[in-house]
Amino acid sequence: MPLSRLAETRQAHIHAVETDKATRIRLLGMGLGKGSRIRILRNRFGDVVLGNGHNRISLGRSITERILVQEQE
User: Which CA distances in Å does 58 have to 6, 27, 34, 49, 51?
Assistant: First the structure.
């Protein structure tokens, strides 16, 4: 499922990143790559704010549509 569809306060692991190489490298620099554990802090059909460890990261909708995750319970 795309990251953009996760509800607030949910946790997930990144399963795949289907972006161009430059964007993938930028995301890796922020600590977001395959296998990363994230938590959705805000998702209000605009930018998505997620937590990754002690970091908060805001990503645009177009990028979050291309990051595939597996939701954790």
Answer: 14, 11, 18, 4, 9
| Pair 2, 72: CB distance under 8 Å | no
Quickly list H helices, the chain: 21-29, 61-64
Compute the distance between CA of residue 17 and CA of residue 69 in angstroms, rounded to an integer.
9
Superfamily of domain 3-72: Ferrous iron transport protein A (FeoA) (2.30.30.90)
Instruction: Report pLDDT digits (tens) over 46-69.
Output: 789 999 889 999 999 999 999 999
Does 45 have pLDDT greater than 80?
no
Residue 3 has pLDDT above 90, yes or no: yes
